[in-house]
Amino acid sequence: MTDILFERHGAAGVVTLNRPDALNAVTHDMVRALAEQLAAWASDPAVTRVVVAAAGKAFSAGGDLRALYELGRAGQFDAALQFWRDEYRLNAAIKRYRKPYVSLIDGVVMGGGVGIAIHGSHRVAGDRFGFAMPEVGIGFFPDIGATWFLPRLPGEAGTWCALTGERIEADATALGLATHRVPSARLPDLLDGLCSSVPVDALLAAFSEPTGSGPMQSHREAIDRLFHGDRVEDILSALDTAGAADGPNAAFARRTAATIRAKSPTSLKITLAQLRRGKNLDFEVCLRTEFRIVSRVVTGHDFYEGIRAVIVDKDHSPRWRPPTLDAVRDADVADYFASVDRELDLS
Question: What pLDDT sits at residue 1?
């Protein structure tokens, strides 16, 4: 079975992520194939828009972490880094794409799947939409351009998302993660319409419906107030103070603090640093920054320990190194952002 399908239907180039049994986890071959096909369609006047959909219940649960784990454990760091080079180049190509690029997201979308979906011009959330960037829970960091798009979510929503890994569902359009909301039952008809010559914006306006308020919206004020700090320790202190108070957000604050404390301390500090830097960087600089970080993470401990605990052994008991936030020095975090011998080339 082909892991990614490409078809011409009328005016549309249609992409289907086709690894439903693996929740459409993105492989290196899928990245390369999609980049090649997008380049071909970009110069094809018969294709006026690209539509990306997925088979099964998930849009994409992220990158193929087990494959990256096996490369790293075998010491094949260059091969692993080539995956990220190609993935980040694909993210940039999608961001630059001159034709409408419509992602139909009706299921979970995380990590590498977000990179395929979110950088396009139009992002349609179905009823089952579920966005998350859970990388700090596996000793990694939110990449695929998250350094750019997470700080640009309203308030501190991106910081909350990155440090907790929590899922966003009904709030997708309010936060700008999705541009439109269309009921799942209407997505097949929308796909048919997108294959016609009807302008994409007009079609999506006709299908789109108002969105309700999800659970995250009820805590927006608290999130903006508690997550504005520039140190993870300060954010946790603010959460602890709120959790000890007799207020409407006390239970939320306690639960959130406990969630953060279970993550990799190194990943938490890298992630907050990248988001604060990303506020003032352009998109391509953000991707180059992420490549610098991953060039160090791939030779470290926590990434492989996180994958071991969550995906390989599934004991969900990672042993982080260092094990505490106060053992992660600011100088060590800064080293992740330093230049590398072979920088990411996005030309």
Answer: 65
